[in-house]
Amino acid sequence: MNERQKQFDAVGMMRAIRDQLSADIAGMTLEQELGWLAATDIKDPFLQRLRARTAQQADAADDASRRR
């Protein structure tokens, strides 16, 4: 088998990021976690659209529940 040395360890990076995020939100209530997530700056355009769509759906659900 051809041995190559890795220049970038994607799995290791993902695990390190996940562990840091877990440490950041450890002990938070659901409301605190949601606030933290809402305050997080998202640079990825896809994730920005996803966040906006989710907010619109939540607003529509709130409006529907108030009308009942």
Largest sheet: none
Number of strands: 0
Quaternary structure type = single chain
Distance between the termini: 66 Å
Helix content: over 70%
Structural class: mainly alpha
Number of helices: 3
- Give start-end ranges of low-pLDDT stretches: none
- How does the overall form come out from the CA principal axes? elongated
Mean pLDDT: 88
CA radius of gyration is 19 Å
Portion of residues in beta strands equals: under 5%
| Element-by-element helix/strand order | HHH
Give a description of the structure.
The protein has 68 residues and is mainly alpha-helical. It has a domain at 30-68. Helices cover 72% and strands 0% of the residues. The chain is built from 3 helices and no strands. The protein has helices at residues 10-25, 30-39, 45-67. The protein starts with 9 loop residues before the first helix and ends with a helix. The mean pLDDT is 88.
Task: For this entry, give a set of tags.
single chain, 68 residues, mainly alpha, 3 helices, 0% strand, elongated
Topology:
Layout: H1 10-25, H2 30-39, H3 45-67
Give a quick precis of the structure.
The protein is 72% helix and 0% strand. It is an all-alpha fold and 68 residues long.
